[in-house]
Amino acid sequence: TVPVGILISGRGSNMQALVAGAGDAYRVVLVASDNPDAAGLAWAAEQGIPTLAHAGKRAEREAAFDAALRDAGVEVIALAGYMRILSPGFIARWRDRIVNIHPSLLPKYKGLDTHARALAAGDVEAGCSVHLVTEELDAGTVLGQARVPVLAGDTPETLAERVLAAEHSLYPAVLAEFVRR
Ligand code: GAR
Fold this sequence. Notes:
Layout: E1 2-8, H1 13-20, E2 26-33, H2 39-46, E3 51-53, H3 58-71, E4 76-79, H4 88-93, E5 98-102, H5 114-120, E6 125-132, E7 142-149, H6 156-179
Parallel strand pairs: 1-2, 1-4, 2-3, 4-5
Antiparallel strand pairs: 5-6, 6-7
Helix pairs in contact: 1-6, 5-6
């Protein structure tokens, strides 16, 4: 099984889905966060998964993450609601070994507020994408997508909830396939 490290910033529901989906393909050996108060960190620690928080400046945080990820033997990094931009240097050191989940059907709606933008555009479907992380934001190769309908009366919150459920099944499946490549 391939050792995976997960970076989170908050709730960590995708991280939980990745932990639940671990098995023959991959195992989660470290959960790290830029936010010491991330709810997901406490959950991971309760499961007995090693955790790390670093609230400092980007260079120091990334150096700490890099060292801990290497110490843990991590081969693939999964971003799961990690809301910081990684430096080009960090991405280069982990080239083609960082994946991310993004709440839109890329290449549509890179960046933030994806659900409000999909609704404002009158889209009839929305969804999520798992993609390789490159220096260009949300622009790396798409590894998998899941689609959900936009329903009459949807708000960004109701649409986010529907997309999030799709994220939770998509991400573990795509990560398992990716680590077997
Ligand atoms: C998820 O919807 C994820 O796709 C999104 O943040 C949420 C995190 O929720 N990520 C991004 O917007 C990345 N730019 P979670 O912490 O419960 O997994």
